[in-house]
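STRUCTURE REQUEST FORM
Protein name: Histidine kinase domain-containing protein
Source organism: Eggerthella lenta
Requested output: structure tokens
Priority: standard
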Amino acid sequence: MAEQDNEQAGEALLQNARRTLREQPRRAIAGLCVVLLLGLLTAALASSLQRVSADDVCADAVAGAVKPMALSGSYAVDGGEERPYAARQALDAKGIGVEAVTVRGTLENDVAAGELVNMRLSSTACTVRVNGETVFSFDGIGDSEPAGEPLLGWIGFRSPGISTRDEVEIALSSAASYSVLGDYVIVLDSLCTGEPDALFVASVASHLPMFVSGILVLIAGLILLLIASVGYLIGVPKETGGLRFAFYVLIGGVWIFFCFDYITLLIPFPAFTTTVSLLAQDVLALLQLSFIASRATGYPRRLATLLLAALSLMLGVCIVLRLAGVASLYEANVVIIPLFVIGVFFAALALAVEARESRDRMAVDATLVVIPCTIGSVVEGLSFLFGGVTTGLWLCAGILCAVVVRFVALFSYARSQIVQAERAHRMEAELLQSRIAVMLSQIQLHFLFNALNTIEYLCEEDPPVAARATNDFARYLRGNMDSLMGSQMVSFRNELEHLAHYVAIEQLRYPSIKVEYDVRADDFLVPSLSVQPLVENAIKHGASRRAGEGVVKVSSWREGRSFVVRVTDNGPGFDERSIARFKEGVDVGIPDNRPPGEAPARNHVGLANVAARVAATCGGTMRVENEAGGGASVTMTVPCEEEGGSR
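Status: completed
Returned output:
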């Protein structure tokens, strides 16, 4: 049963892989590359444990200072004539293709028995003889694989006891097919005694800029990755390629931090650290090409994409050959690094030309990021090919410059977005105020004329009523002006007070209209001038069209996390077409039974207008419907935000 379940699970996994390869080939290829990289790193770590023990490159804590070993005598290059040699002097030989260097002489200081002798190898085999007797020998390969990586890092041995009278011979030879003079100089200049902890402190101190820069670049990469991830998830256009650049900075930080002058003292697995450093060096070029492809257009984009595909395929082949034991990654890098450097250079050049011609802001920003990284990559590549080592400082400086440019661009973009958001908010507020002003002007067109005519008539017929009407009219106008100039949200109590003045004036024209109130909640906020238009529609287009007494009812209550305001009337109700038009956002009134000469309903304050204001101001909703027993109702629901501001 268990075997059957395993077979079914395997079949399902295989089907998913086939579907991914068919439907999303890019994701499948990326996944395959990740698997290859993880496989190579795992193999490198496992083989380094078998080949070079941790005790060889890093021991547990012991105190003691690091003392340089000064060897003076003679040296010979590739078995040639011997020349005088003094400690840390320059070797007179061609830079590339040096197969072996042998130094013979005596030490300036004794090295006691049991004292740890250290040397920093750089793809070199080393044999140490004292008075003709071999005391240490290492073939320069850091792991046990058929195509093992050469050791790039520290190694040591315990001294048998060496005095200043003993003849010391150090025979160095290349552990790789590609060799340069700088590899041997590194070994000879690094000779010292001291325990690993002290050696680590001394190495970090002498390479402090690299150590600190690596940490800074790693931190910057993590910050950029966080920013780019958030931007990518929310769909920020400016973040096109942001994730790729963040990964570029992260991998660059790894490469810088994995400095061979101290990393094997911290991580005592030389094959693993060598593989990580070499892979990081290669992946950096691919990520830079990927970033260029994401920001460029036209020919530069096609060029970067083509180079990315070709170089990715080349690196994939190298990894497969390394896993198969055919060729080491170090040997492969000697071939592919020049191609990577050339590819990055021409892709960056094409992007710079495009930015210069188009003046596109995104292309210019990308160019300012890519140029320092490209300069650093070119210098480091040339240093690797002709000096056998990479300083790391050039690429580190390039990445840090690019990071600064990137942060400035992101800050500028964020600032522009804030300005745009503030401008949009201000324009929205101005638009809302304009709509309120239009609404007030619409009210004044018909209401002011009718109210003034009524007051004029009452001044002659019933002065006390005219005085009350004038007071209501003045308070009503004051309420309108306060709403126009004040906050968008007002207390429902204030809205009811304003409504009372309006109703008092309208009842002078429609004495048969009765307005009832069922207020069960009034301590909440509503958009200003949102209730009065509902009552106006109920009076003008509902209750006033009914033969006999017309009734308008204003109700309010709390319902869960919302407050509800409902205005009902016993008029003829809405027709279905009007309800449909309201749902579409079109202002509606009651077109039926309109007295001759009265303005069309669309010239009054529209319900859809009020609904739009309610939605824009507080996120509320409105609905219109006919009552079962006749009449119509308009229901406004607003979020539960009370006068105190709590929700």
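Reviewer notes: The longest helix spans residues 393-461. The longest strand covers residues 550-559.
Form closed.
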